[in-house]
Structures are given as structure tokens and as C-alpha cells.
Amino acid sequence: MKEKSIYWREFFGRIVVMVGIWSRIVCGADQIKQTSVVNVGVILSSSSWVGKMGLSCINLSLTDFYSSNPHYNTKILLHINDSNDDPLLAASQALELIEKSEVKAILGPESSFQAPYTIQLSEKFKVPLISFAPPPPPASTSSNLNSPYLLRVYNHFSQIYAIRDIIKTFEWKQVVTIYQDDEFGQSIVLDLIHALQVNSSN
């Protein structure tokens, strides 16, 4: 559990660094000498493990970021919303964040099924959407998933390669793939099967 916490803290730390750099670009050179607040929206589900861990790690990462970079005059102000795993609620929250809070970027949502509605809004208002949701199933036909305003930072290949290397080390020729039947499992299983076939495992 401790290793997972460290992983997610580092993961969200990289996102915070990206937002920090982006905030300096948004504020412009003429505002660098004075403190500028950059509004950033967060859409997570408080009922999910990823949402709870994500929010905790985002706050810790912000603290770490500004402790290590005291010279930064741009301050990220988070506007946190609970999507409750509801795609329509996530979209309405994104609209409210854009129109009322005037956010410059949005972190989330955590589910690819929530993303299409939110991506449409980010495209319309030209607000970057930084999503750490797993990629959608291969059968997905939504063109919004290729939006230039969508930055997907999730990468499951590190897990796939770790599993592949374990199988290779023990020289297993047959393995049984057990996966969760949701968007994460559907997106990862084909890549996992391909990696295992390269190892000549069935």
C-alpha cells in the first residue's frame, strides 16, 4: 500500500509540474514579477479509491512543488468537484468550472466513459483537459478522444512489461489472464496478450 501511495504521489506530482509550467505560460512574462493565481479545476469521484488517493496526492504534490520552487510567483488554486462517477454530472461540473471559476485547465475525470462530454466542453472553450483515466476500449468510436485539448497521462505499459518480465524470468509457457471486466480491463488485456505472445506464452 505504501508503494502505491508513493507511485500515485509521484504520478500526480508530474501532473502538478506540468500545470505549474503551463500556468507560467498562461500568465505571461509581464506578470512573472507579481503573484498570479491560476484557477485549475479537479473532477474526481470521492467514492472511488483513485479519487480519494488522487485528491490526497494532488494536495501533497502541490505542497512539495512550491516547497521546492519558492521562486514561482504563479499559484495554482484548485477548484475541486465530486463527479460521483456520473458522466453528466462531470460534464456539468466542467461547464461550471469553465464559466464561473474561469479555470485554465481541468484535471480529470478519472473514467474514460465520463471523458467524451467533458472533452466537448474543453474543445469549445479551449481549456486543456488533463486526464489520468485509462484509455477506452478498442471498440470505442468517439472522435473526441483524439482532441488536441485532451492530454492523457495514463500509461499501462509499465504494468504490462512488469508482468511480461516475471513470466519470462520463470519461463512460464502457459498463463491464465484474469482481469476486471470494465474499461481498464478491456483496454489492457489486448496489449497484455500481445506482450505474452512475444514471449511465446499462451
From TrEMBL:
Gene3D superfamilies: 3.40.50.2300. It is a multi-pass membrane protein. Residues 57-199 form the Receptor ligand binding region domain. GO terms for cellular component: membrane. It comes from the Eukaryota. The keyword Transferase does not apply. One of its GO terms (molecular function) is G protein-coupled receptor activity. Pfam families: ANF_receptor. The keyword Transmembrane applies. It is found in: Membrane. Keywords: Glycoprotein, Membrane, Receptor, Transmembrane, Transmembrane helix. SUPFAM superfamilies: Periplasmic binding protein-like I. This is Receptor ligand binding region domain-containing protein.
